[in-house]
Design goal:
255 residues, alpha/beta, 3-stranded antiparallel sheet
């Protein structure tokens, strides 16, 4: 039986079978929420989504189009036949966000917890950005939009690539609804190809080394996975030259 959860004692909503809790922002009063919910379906209102069924976490400045889009993504099944597990789209979005983390795809730990970058890669990424855990998971500050919303499964040498169906189906629609992004952190080759165009004549090292040619709007980064420890040791210029500029730019965008 599809599950429903109360948004307020007198307001329930079924979200495509997902167990969805809708709670108000501290900046909104009970009165304004009640008024908006009952008088204007097109009104813009800030919510925090916490989906226990799809386990997607989203904070959005809500209008009907964005709301419909988020429901559709949370219920997406276009790759289901390719997985040995249930699809579990994981993302963090808000039209108020000023920094976008464009990653690859959730790993197994994120798949189980429903929290993006809830792993050693996330610890390293937060250190690179110079942000706290609390700041990183504030969707009104930082949006997280992977190339593939779901954990793609394991291959012989690590996680499989993001499913190729995901980005064409959803990515541009989401980006079009986030008008306040000032900085996009493009992580890994799949995100780099999408945001910068195919880099067929250059390897990842060359693209990251040329980060100034894309700044200040975009900064390409290697994946922060521990699997890239060898790359980081061989390319000491990244920590010396790129990270200070990255932290300064992130700080400017979040201030």
């Amino acid at each position: 039986m599809p599950q429903t959860v109360s948004i307020k004692p007198n307001y329930k909503e079924q979200i495509n079978g997902n167990n969805l809790l809708l709670s108000r922002s501290e900046r909104c009063t009970d009165a304004c929420i009640t008024n908006t919910l009952h008088t204007s379906s097109n009104s813009r209102l800030e919510y925090t989504y916490l989906c226990y069924g799809s386990r997607s976490r989203v904070s959005v400045l809500m209008n009907r189009a964005f709301r419909v889009l988020i429901k559709e993504i949370g219920n997406c099944q276009i790759c289901a036949d390719h997985f040995e597990h249930e699809p579990n789209p994981i993302f963090q979005l808000s039209p108020k966000a000023s920094v976008l983390v464009a990653g690859q795809a959730p790993g197994r730990k994120a798949h189980k917890s429903g929290i993006p970058f809830n792993d050693p890669s996330g610890d390293r990424l937060r250190d690179w950005m110079g942000v706290s855990l609390e700041m990183f998971y504030d969707a009104d500050k930082i949006a997280i939009l992977p190339m593939g919303f779901c954990f793609p499964g394991h291959g012989r040498t690590g996680d499989l690539p993001p499913r190729r169906e995901c980005a064409p189906a959803w990515r541009q629609q989401v980006l079009d609804m986030m008008p306040n992004i000032q900085l996009t952190l493009v992580i890994g080759s799949y995100a780099i190809d999408w945001h910068l165009g195919p880099q067929k004549k250059h390897n990842l090292t060359d693209v990251v080394r040329a980060w100034k040619s894309h700044a200040p709007a975009i900064i390409p980064l290697p994946h922060p996975s521990p699997r890239n420890n060898v790359w980081l040791r061989k390319n000491a210029w990244f920590e010396r030259d790129v990270l200070p500029a990255l932290r300064a730019r992130v700080s400017d965008c979040l201030s």
